[in-house]
Design goal:
The protein is an all-alpha fold and 50 residues long. Helices cover 26% and strands 0% of the residues. The chain has a domain of 34 residues. It is elongated and about 45 Å long.
Length: 50
């Protein structure tokens, strides 16, 4: 697989994988300590991010 051509300020040689993404949300719009705890749990498992 080849990289797309360089255009303007975009240089495909700088592309890399986005490893380790965490996302938590509530659908009922109620504040909850549980959502904070889940976010902290995600952060703890992504040691190189936090």
């Amino acid at each position: 697989m080849s990289l797309p051509p360089r255009q303007g300020l975009y240089d495909p040689s700088f592309e890399h994988d986005a490893c380790g993404v965490g996302f938590v949300a509530t659908l009922n719009r109620e504040a909850s300590h549980d959502i904070v705890a889940k976010g902290l749990e995600i952060l703890a498992t992504l040691t190189h991010r936090g």
